[in-house]
Amino acid sequence: MKIDRLLPRAIMMSLTVAAALTAAPGFAAAQTGGTICGTVWRDVNENGKHDADEPTIANTTIGLESVGSNYTNTDADGKYCLRNVPPGAQVLGANDRALMSPSEGWTISGQDSKFGFTTGRTQPITVADGQTIEGIDAGYRPARMDVRASQVIIEYGGKTYTSGKDWLTAPVQVGTEFLIVGGVVPDGNVAEQLGARLTVPAGLTILGQVGGMPATISGQTVSGMFHERRHPGAVEFLGVRVRADGEFSPQQIRLEALKGVYADTKPANNILTAKLSAKDGRDVNVAPQKDTMAAPKVVPAVVPPAEAAKPVAEAGSRAGTAMPEVTTTASELPETGTNPTPVIALSVGLLAVGGAGVWFSRRRFA
C-alpha cells in the first residue's frame, strides 16, 4: 500500500517542502560567499581622496569581473554591497561613465579609490566565505580631453628629422628605404582610448608598420587605435617603413590624431602635415642606400613612485599626471602592438544604455 494514500494531503506537502529546504545548498546559512561594500564619489579636486564636501554618485554600477551576473547599482548615498561573492581572489569593475552626462573618468588610484585609473578595475581582492569587506570605494573625475597630433618624424640616411624643428628639405633618393612616424598625445585629466591615422605620398610603397599602436595598412594609409586607455600626456607613436619607388614633387605627409571615448575640446590641432619629395639621380644630398638601423627597442614606461609599489594591473601604466612631450628617434619606438586591428568606432547606441547595460564586464572601451 502506498504511503501517500494513508497520509493527509497537508502532511505530505509539509514533508515535501521540508525535504527540499534541507537539500538546498547553504540551507543553514543566510547567504553563501562573502560581501564587498564601498562608496562611489565624484573627485571634484582630482586628488584621489574622498573629501568631506565631495558628492557621492547614485545609480552607477559596480560588478564582479569573474561573475557576469553579479553586479549592483549604488543607492541614493552612493553606497553599494555585492553579496554572494565566491570565495577566493576577485576583481571588481566600476562602470565606464565616459559617455554619460556629465562625462567622467576614473580618478587616480592608490588613495581612497581602489579602482584603476586606466582600467576601472581593482587589484584582486581575497574574499572568504561569510566575510564582509568594506571600503572598496570608486572615484570619478569630470573629464577634460584634447587629443592632438604632436610631431612627424623621418629617419633617413642615418639621421632623424622632426617636423617644425629640423625637417628634411632635400628630396629622398628613389630606391631607398626609410621610416616615417607620427606622434599623437591625449592632453587632459583622464585616461583616453587613443588612435592615429598616417597617410604618406603616393610615390612611396609601405613595407610594414612600426611603433606600438595596433594598426592596419590600406593603400597609402596606416590607421590604428589602442584598445586600452592611455595615460594623459604620454606620446604614442604610429609609423611605417617605406620605399621610394618613383620621383614625386613635394607632397604632404598627413598625421591625424583620433579621439577615443571623450569629447575633444580642440579638434583643430588633430592634424599635422609635412611635405616630402623624391628624386632619382646623383644630385641629391644623401647617397642612395637602404636604412640599416637596428631593430626597434622597447622604451620602458615611466611609473610614478606611488604606483611602483603596487602590482601592475593597468595596461601601459605611466604617470597619471601630464607628462612632458618627448621627441624620440624612430629606432627607439616601442614595438608593443602585436595584434593589428582596424580602428574601432564607438556605437552611439551606448549613449542610450544605462545602469547594468554598460557596466564594465559588458564593455572593453570599443
What do you see in this structure?
Helix content is 5%, strand content 33%. It has helices at residues 9-23, 305-308, and strands at residues 34-42, 61-64, 71-73, 79-85, 88-90, 92-94, 104-106, 125-127, 132-133, 138-142, 145-156, 159-162, 172-173, 177-188, 195-199, 204-210, 215-218, 221-225, 236-244, 248-258, 271-279. It has 366 residues and is mostly beta strands. It folds into two domains: 34-141 and 355-362, Sandwich (Immunoglobulin-like); 145-301 and 325-332, Immunoglobulin-like. The N and C termini lie far apart (67 Å). Mean pLDDT is 77; it is low at 1-29 and 291-366. A six-stranded mixed sheet has the order 13-21-20-15-18-17, with no helix packed on it.
Tell me the Rg in angstroms.
Answer: 28 Å
How many individual domains? 2
The helix count comes to: 2
- What's the N-to-C terminus distance? 67 Å
Report the sheet with the most strands, covering strand number, pairing sense and barrel closure.
6 strands, mixed
Strand order of the largest sheet: 13-21-20-15-18-17
TL;DR of this structure?
By secondary structure, the protein is mostly beta strands. 5% of the residues lie in helices and 33% in strands.
List the helices and strands and how they pair.
Blueprint: H1 9-23, E1 34-42, E2 61-64, E3 71-73, E4 79-85, E5 88-90, E6 92-94, E7 104-106, E8 125-127, E9 132-133, E10 138-142, E11 145-156, E12 159-162, E13 172-173, E14 177-188, E15 195-199, E16 204-210, E17 215-218, E18 221-225, E19 236-244, E20 248-258, E21 271-279, H2 305-308
Parallel strand pairs: 1-9, 1-10, 13-21
Antiparallel strand pairs: 1-4, 2-3, 2-6, 5-8, 7-10, 11-12, 11-14, 14-19, 15-18, 15-20, 16-19, 17-18, 20-21
